[in-house]
């Protein structure tokens, strides 16, 4: 049975259950009218049905593999990701200041759910990036925002989160990764992380990791943990 995106169901929910129109009274969401959101849901549904869903089986028949230290993703995943990125679907709720659509998270949640239902293994990549974008928007320095956000939002780069360690799963405070100041505003990170969703790929120019680690003066437990951005390739000031 072919995948059918639940576009009409979401349109019904937005109109009759969650009262989406209330969100458009908020200044930052004035542009996201119901007509625009209907069009966005329709286009997202078409992408899910025509491009993303057909890739679901490839994840089983042609799984990702490591060849001579290089990650090779499932057949078609690179093209599928490119369609997601070029359509702006990585950045639906990201700040327009850095190239995002600036839509309510309500809309992003609906789009993400459709994409996840179509092919979760692929959709997890932009989902991880969306989480990193939100973290940087709220907590990063202006310098880091200017350097990383445009390329994460465009989908040129992807993002991950690195929390779990062999001895620190749900008890994140037990992590042993260390961050030593280099004296120039950067840090040397040492430690081992495991279970990193989309920790590498063969279709984005860089993979940026948000890594939990403890500074030398960090207290024990979760309160002493800091967050660092650790890219696969360290960019210069021009990216």
Overall outline: globular
CATH class of the largest domain: Mainly Alpha
> Uncertain runs with pLDDT below 50, 5 residues or more?
none
Helices and strands, in order, run as HHHEEHHHEEEEE
Give the CATH architecture of the largest domain: Orthogonal Bundle
Q: Helical stretch count?
A: 6
Superfamily (CATH H level) name of the largest domain = Acyl-CoA dehydrogenase/oxidase, N-terminal domain
Q: Radius of gyration from the CA trace?
A: 19 Å
Q: How would you classify the helix and strand content by structural class? A: alpha+beta
> Main beta sheet, described?
3 strands, mixed
- Distance linking N and C termini: 45 Å
Helix content: 25-40%
């Amino acid at each position: 049975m072919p995948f059918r995106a639940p576009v009409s169901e979401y349109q019904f929910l937005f109109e009759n259950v969650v009262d989406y129109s209330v969100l458009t009274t908020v200044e930052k969401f004035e542009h996201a009218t119901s007509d625009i959101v209907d069009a966005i849901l329709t286009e997202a549904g078409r992408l899910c049905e025509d491009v993303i869903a057909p890739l679901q089986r490839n994840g089983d028949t042609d799984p990702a593999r490591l060849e001579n230290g290089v990650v090779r993703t499932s057949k078609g995943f690179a093209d599928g990701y490119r369609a997601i990125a070029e359509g702006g679907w990585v950045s639906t709720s990201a700040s327009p200041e850095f190239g995002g659509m600036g839509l309510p998270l309500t809309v992003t949640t609906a789009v993400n759910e459709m994409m996840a239902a179509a092919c979760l293994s692929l959709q997890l990549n932009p989902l991880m990036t969306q989480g990193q974008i939100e973290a940087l928007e709220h907590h990063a320095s202006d310098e880091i925002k200017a350097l990383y956000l445009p390329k994460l939002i465009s989908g040129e780069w992807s993002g991950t989160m690195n929390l779990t360690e062999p001895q620190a799963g749900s008890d994140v405070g037990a992590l042993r990764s260390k961050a030593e100041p280099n004296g120039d505003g950067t840090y040397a990170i040492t430690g081992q992380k495991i279970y990193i969703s989309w920790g590498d790929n063969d279709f984005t120019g860089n993979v940026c990791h948000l890594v939990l680690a403890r500074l030398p003066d960090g207290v024990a437990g979760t309160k002493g943990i800091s967050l660092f951005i650790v890219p696969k390739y360290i960019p210069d000031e021009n990216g």
